[in-house]
Write a structure and sequence with these properties.
The structure holds 2 protein chains of 2 kinds. By secondary structure, chain A is of the alpha/beta class. Chain A contains 12 helices and 8 strands. Chain A is 40% helix and 14% strand. Classes of the chains: A alpha/beta, B alpha/beta. Chains A and B meet through strand 2, helix 4 and helix 6 of A and strand 3, helix 3 and strand 9 of B. Strand 2 of chain A pairs parallel with strand 9 of chain B.
Chain lengths: 311, 390
């Protein structure tokens, strides 16, 4: 894997001067994923923070070919780009390898873009879909999505006098993508650069559809100081709120934390969960801990089971 | 060499697609357009075309994938109808604003609800504002010829706008008709080799950013560019039609007149109904009644001046609409034709008939009734429903 020194010498795919918030994790995801590519990349982005902040006409922060179509169709749009590339390759009109990378936020991936994503994965296009997952519709003002965790305060499921934020648990899209039986699925987070870079490199080394779900702390929607993005990403992994793992051809590989921290360590870093620490809301935190524990146990079991099967 | 064969509208369109041999086709099945892509998929399976065929999971993704492939530089086609076209509506204006010359086979079918699979023009008419050239066909031959011309029209460097060629669901799409096919080589020669794209997303040495966010300071100008391109489209469509006529002998225009020059009573229509109307015109002419037909072939851009000139001598005009705007002011074609006539000094009396919704039959008797009404136009309401049970 490329080290930081090597990575720092590569040309940045996304320049500074874009209009993302200070401390935004989305640009970190884009840069770390794209820098991991040895080959040229072509990028498609769903509508969202990333797209609106980097492409305000007549300016563009992209140093690589970039296409935005609509909100829910980044995967389908990239299917078309990749299809034409396959045509050119088959006709002998190009031999250069290109990595096709689609970026979407959690709304454009988990919710409205889910069908388009599922279709592209099922059809087997050679592309890498990266969800920069900040767990709400941050671009339109912190509305809840199906990626929003239980208890989080959002503008469409706010914490109030009788309700305490989102009532349902988040959708586990990573596992849904595993169920598509695609060659590579990974879960990563901002703040673990080596892990993220290694997973992106792995994705680019594999032909066929790849999916990466990258937890991206959002300083606006989660409400914390801009410099804490990476720290919060790491705590998400250490509490197993966002386990770091990958599934290559059905075989699970988990990066286990040295010590699994309680979920409160993650919750207390952000204002979106502040109301949960008021008296009377203990049960919600217990529920969140129970969900995290259950998913973690399930992951460990899958790792053990698939490791055995792989042997 | 001309080959005369029997083909349905769908077969004719699929045949044109085979001869065009597009780089990428992305599509999703929908009645009555399904057959076009089914036949084409078999061509792909049999190696008769070089196309990369993407069988997507919805029409929304079909048009989205077409955008990707076309932005990458490919010659791209698809086919759809009705709800499928409606599911593409969100993407259709993105295609025109990105100036992507995607060509679509569109089989006209009623829009839900209630659900109905038969012909009317509600789907296509609802797409009239999205910056696509729209060409209607009277029969399979026209559909075949227009689809070949559509590649040239859409990809013309002065235009670079998406183009849809329509047939009437089941009436043309599923009815066997005699058509004259061109040689494969002649089609290839006519469309002129590979697409010459202005921007190619796959050009990694010259990276472009496409589909940017365009705020108050530029959005307006970019929309006006599409309008200006569309204004110039009529000239391009006619140039392509003239070249087609010169090479293959079949002449097309923006509009077509049938017994129109001295006609006093004129029906304006588009699509398959024009064929039915021509039969009635012949009948009436034999009786000494000066009946005529004005067929609109190109609905976008709208040939208002040409229509106004062609109708300038008529006494009465009935516009037939196979869709309703629900504006209480008549159908889509009526409001456009009427607006186009406003500046004429001598204006014919003009009335509107909305007919054939959801595949309701339009027959000789109903067309005769329209011509009879035109001869007593004073008694007619501005808008009426033709062939509806009361």
């Amino acid at each position: 894997m490329a080290n930081l020194k090597e990575l720092s010498k590569k040309q940045e795919p996304l320049t500074g001067g874009h209009r993302l918030c200070p401390g935004c994790g989305a640009s970190i995801v884009v840069r770390q994923v794209l820098l991991a590519s040895k080959d040229p990349v072509v990028v498609v982005s769903a509508t969202g923070c990333l797209e609106v902040s980097t492409t305000i006409f007549p300016y563009s922060a992209w140093k690589v070919p970039f296409l935005h179509n609509a909100f829910e169709n980044a995967a389908a749009t990239m299917s078309g780009v990749e299809a034409y590339y396959q045509y050119l390759k088959r006709k002998g009109k190009t031999s250069q390898h290109i990595n096709f990378v689609a970026f979407g936020g959690d709304g454009g991936t988990y919710d409205i873009g889910f069908q388009s994503l599922s279709g592209a994965m099922e059809r087997g296009h050679d592309l890498t879909y990266v969800c920069y997952n900040n767990q709400a519709y941050m671009n339109t003002g912190i509305q809840r999505s199906s990626a929003t965790p239980k208890g989080a305060n959002t503008t469409t499921e706010p914490a109030g006098k009788v309700k305490q934020g989102k009532t349902m648990n988040r959708k586990d899209l990573t596992e849904i993508m595993v169920a598509h039986n695609i060659p590579y699925v990974a879960q990563a987070t901002v703040g673990n650069w080596a892990d993220l870079t290694r997973k992106a490199e792995k994705a680019f080394s594999i032909r066929g559809p790849k999916f990466m779900n990258v937890l991206q702390p959002c300083r606006l929607g989660w409400a914390y100081k801009p410099e804490e993005t990476g720290v919060i990403g790491r705590i998400a992994a250490e509490t197993c709120f966002w386990p770091l793992y990958e599934v290559e051809n059905g075989v699970y590989k988990i990066t286990k934390p040295r010590e699994k921290k309680p979920i409160t360590e993650f919750l207390k870093t952000q204002e979106r969960f502040r109301h949960l620490f008021k008296p009377g809301n203990e049960k919600i935190i217990e529920d969140i801990q129970a969900e995290v524990d259950q998913r973690w146990q399930s992951l460990l079991a899958k790792e053990a089971m698939t490791a055995k099967a792989a042997k | 060499m001309v080959k005369v064969v029997a083909k349905t509208g769908n077969e004719a369109m699929a045949e044109a697609m085979r001869q065009i041999n597009p780089d990428v086709v992305a599509a999703y099945p929908i009645t009555p357009a399904t057959e076009i892509v089914m036949i084409f998929a078999k061509y792909v399976a049999d190696g008769l075309v070089d196309t990369e065929y993407v069988a997507v999971e919805s029409e929304h993704s079909a048009m989205s994938a077409c955008v990707g492939a076309s932005a990458a530089g490919g010659r791209v086609m698809t086919g759809t109808s009705s709800q499928g076209l409606a599911l593409m509506y969100e993407i259709l204006p993105i295609v025109s604003s990105l100036r992507l010359p995607i060509v679509m086979c569109d089989v006209n079918r009623a829009i839900s609800g209630p659900i109905n699979i038969h012909c009317d023009h509600s789907d296509t008419m609802a797409a009239q504002d999205f910056g696509w050239v729209q060409i209607f066909s009277e029969n399979s031959q026209e559909a075949y010829d227009s689809l070949i011309q559509a590649i040239r029209i859409a990809e013309d460097p002065r235009l670079q706008l998406p183009t849809m060629v329509t047939t009437d669901g089941f009436i043309i799409s599923h009815c066997m008709d005699k058509i004259e096919l061109l040689d494969d080589a002649d089609v290839q020669k006519f469309i002129g080799g590979e697409r010459k794209a202005a921007t190619r997303l796959l050009d990694i040495d010259k990276p472009v950013t496409l589909g940017l966010i365009d705020l108050q300071d530029y959005y307006f100008e970019h929309r006006v560019q599409v309008a200006e391109a569309m204004r110039g489209a009529k000239k391009i469509i006619l140039e392509v039609a003239d070249e087609f006529a010169e090479k293959f002998g079949r002449k097309y225009g923006l509009i077509e007149g049938y017994q129109l020059d001295d006609a006093e009573h004129v029906i304006v229509a588009l699509g398959s109904t024009c064929g039915t109307t021509k039969v009635v015109v012949d009948e009436l002419r034999a009786k000494g009644i000066k009946a005529g037909l004005l067929k609109i072939r190109v609905f976008r851009p709208f040939p208002a001046e040409e229509i106004a000139a062609a109708l300038s001598k008529a006494k009465t005009v009935a516009v037939l609409d196979r869709s309703d705007t629900w504006s209480a002011q008549g159908g889509h074609v009526f409001t456009e034709v009427r607006s186009g006539m406003f500046d004429q000094k001598a204006k014919p009396k003009m009335i509107n008939y909305i007919y054939g919704l959801g595949g309701r039959e339009i027959n000789l008797e109903l067309i005769r009734q329209v011509y009879t009404d035109l001869q007593n136009i004073e008694k007619q309401p501005l808008v009426q429903y033709l062939g509806v049970r009361e």
